[in-house]
Amino acid sequence: MPDAQVDWWPEWLSAGCADTLFSTLLAQTPWQQLPISLFGRTVMQPRLLAWYGDHPYTYSGLTLQPLPWTHPLRQLKGWVEAQCQTSFNTVLLNRYRSGSDYMGWHRDDEPELGEQPTIASVSLGASRRFLFRHPKRQEKREVLLNHGSLLVMRGTTQTHWQHSLPKTQKPTSERINLTFRFLTPSDK
Ligand SMILES: O=C(O)CCC(=O)C(=O)O
Ligand SMILES: [Mn+2]
Question: 5-181, what's its fold?
Answer without folding.
Answer: Jelly Rolls (2.60.120)
